[in-house]
Amino acid sequence: MVVRIRLARFGNKHQPFYNIIVAQARSARDSKPLEVIGTLNPFPQRPTNLSEQEARTARAYKEISLDRSRVKYWLGVGAQPSDPVWRILNLAGLVQQKQQSPK
Amino acid sequence: MFQWLDTEGAPLKHHIPGSTNYLPDLKIRGGSFDKGEPSTQPFPLNANFVSESILSEELRNEIHKRVVGQKKSIRAVSAELGVDMRRVAAVCRLVEMEKRWKQQGKPLALPYARAVHEMVPTTPLQDSRHQRQTPHESINDLPAHRLTNAQIFYPVSESRQFTRIEAGRVFSAAPARDHRIVTEEAANPSEAMSRITQNPSRIETVGKGAKEQPVLQPADVRIPHPHLVVHERQRIANPNEFQLVRKAYDARLREEEEIERDRKLIAQERRERQLSRVQPESSRFEFRIKDVVVSKETTGSDGRGARAPGRRYGVPSYDRKKGQIKIPTQVVV
Amino acid sequence: MRNRATTPLSKAKIRQSWSKYNLYNLSRSRDPRTAQRTFFQQKWTAKSLSRNYHGEQVRESEWERMFSRRLRSVVPMDPYKLARDDGSGMAAGRGSGLEKFPEENPTPKRLLPASRNPNATPYTHMTFAPLERRLDVAIFRALFASSTRQARQFVVHGSVTVNGKKMRYPGYLLNPGDMFQVDTERVMFATGAPKDKFERREGRVERKKAEAKDAEAEGEEAAAEEAKENESEGETKEAEEETLDTRGTLKTLLDQAKSIMTSNKDVLPAKRKQEIRGFQKAIRRVMSKSPDSSILAANLETQFAEIMKVLKAKKIETKEAKGSKKETKDSQKTETAPTTPEAKGTETAATGENKPTEALNEAFRQAAQNPEEELDTSELTDEEFEVLRHALVQLRDNPIDSTKPYATPWRPRDYMSAFAFVPRYLEVNHNICAAVYLRHPVARPGSSEVPTPFGENIATAAFSWYLRRR
Hints:
The complex is a heterotrimer. Chain A is an alpha+beta fold. Chain A has 3 helices and 5 strands, in the order E-E-E-H-E-H-E-H. Chain A is globular. In chain A, about 30% of the residues are buried. Chain B is mainly α. Chain B is built from 13 helices and 7 strands. In chain B, a hairpin with a 7-residue loop joins strand 6 and strand 7 (about 285-290). Chain B is extended. Among the domains of chain C are: about 20-25 and about 40-70 and about 115-190 and about 415-465, Roll (Structural Genomics Hypothetical 15.5 Kd Protein In mrcA-pckA Intergenic Region, Chain A), CATH 3.10.290; about 245-330 and about 340-395, no CATH class. Chain C contains 18 helices and 8 strands. In chain C, strand 2 and strand 3 form a beta hairpin. In chain C, helix 2 (about 40-55) packs across helix 18 (about 455-465) and helix 15 crosses helix 17. Chains in contact: A-B, B-C. At the B-C interface, strand 1, helix 5, helix 6, strand 3 and helix 11 of B face helix 1, strand 1, helix 4, helix 5 and helix 8 of C. Strand 4 (about 60-65) of chain A pairs parallel with strand 7 of chain B. Chain C: InterPro entries: Ribosomal_uS4, Ribosomal_uS4_CS, S4_RNA-bd, S4_RNA-bd_sf.
């Protein structure tokens, strides 16, 4: 069976929060995983403690936490990231951008 | 009721500028106005609540001037004027805001502020330079620690040097220290204390895993101004050399400030190192990727360690339950 | 009309409110009787009494969830004592001969009950400390609202911000360092005396006028302008008549300023208002003398600035004149003459700030003693300038404005002083109606920071009620 790196939804209604987990592909989304290797907060946060000028140009940010060494290990043993996790790992510079499949 | 308001309660109707006008005063002065000191107790039945003085306008501006204008540290200003450090910071914030309002031409509530300052006792600013500023409040408040609630019977041999440091160790169930270390520290207590205050991350801990907690430190370290204790020690040692002691005090204060600044800088750098910011072209957001560690140490043996990343498993979310109050818990500036 | 349900007179309940009904209830409140009542009954009474005051707007279940049996306390430490003693004496004393027995009082001190021992920490007064974190209670404690219910309304109606963001939840629990801010107009309304019947009517008339003006402006602008011109012409004519006698106008101005500054609270508000209005008019007349008469139409702020400028110019003139006079006198006597007039000016300013009324009286007495001389050389003395300045400052800061929802000029509402205190866990700036929640309230030896009208026995019984061991 395939081991996947994917997201598990936590948080409240209208207020998602994701754990980045390593789990068997066929297991339930929120069941206990093999390992939790990070988190993703999809709600954009406003940067604080800025001067007015900075505040005008500042981008809202999304918080991600990730254990890079564990990601490398799991990729090395053949774990397959799901599409959203692939994008996150690409941001972290751990995988190449996924090729668009030809239509 | 109206009879009472017209007769006995009549003095309470208008405030007496520059003095308090509380209910217990009625019984003391018996309707006549100027007999003795005005009471600072607003409630007749509660002698344990007194109306404490607030900062006068001049003192507030002085604090702002010293911190913002003369660039003194909050700690120094707090020790000089006898005002709590948190209050000093708050005053600076508020006065700054007031200035901004004046610049923008927003109307201030001046008559109201004046009336309140007439009703409530205020701490005045000592105008002459030679007079010492009367302290506004006690600046060295020691919060009662949870561990000291217990009453412990702990027999000690007479020959043993059993100081506040030892007592703290007993409260947190830490093993007794070696005799040599104790005598060494007793020889130079100031240095021993500053070693702790300057490196708070190196305080010894007791307990394992989730129960790990720092050893309870003595009051000399836990008060907001530990440097004042060292200053007093120097004053006791050199009772006649004011200049020398004063100089040493200033030097120590500067040193403490520098160390604190360095500590903050290092912490900031560490945080920056662990954080990588990505601003992809295709997205309007920035992504802040924080490095975390997933290992046996952080997750613990049962996988539920508090230092590991991620929300915990086995903890239900009660957000749809009845009676859950969903109001914000904090507002970030 | 008072709310009969919240401040009943028949069964006195003390509330977080500044109403006179509450004050009366507070004045006749006594400790409940405990003789021949079971402990449960005592606790029940204590709980219900204190809950009527603390968080009466909070549901019981909500409060029970907030209750914490851990009561915060602090001990003020003296660095001198800490430096003198490292605490080893406590352990070394027994049997080593270091321990001293007091000779006069060999029997150990009897432990006083907490209520009579001034240095005991009143822990149980901290029972309701978690409620002081609530935003509505904190607003009331900072003297921004006349009751917690009103504070709650301010929050719900959106005139309160926390850290610069609008906060609509009265149950928001403030964190240490949070700054909350209430709309100044709302605060002035809450703490100011209410309007009487005539003032309300004035306000209505004013509003109608404004509406009518708006309509007119929309309809025909030219006509309005014409009318204005006519008006201004009439005014200037009047002003000309008045300014013929500058001395007279200045004198009347001063008289009015004096009456404004010295009038105490016994004077009826209506009469006081008349006085102030007269003063305002007089100022206008004086100003019409000045070359730039367009200020008349402008707002009070610019008027004030202009008049201060005029006065300053005059003051400099007087100073010069006086200085020259002094110099001549001094030269007759001695050669070394310090610059006295300036020093005098600063002195009067200082005293004027401290006790305006006294300085005024003094000034007027002086003015009365030698009116001709002073007015001959220069029209006003330094003291008189001070008087005028004070009156002007007051006029600017506390103007008459019948559009406001409170009685103008603003004065504190009746019986406010009996409830006016600011606890130490808040740092309040009343000028901008903002406050910072510094820390959670704490108890310290001899006093607790939670304002509660009840004594030790009620507090202790209420605390033990919520310990749930009944």
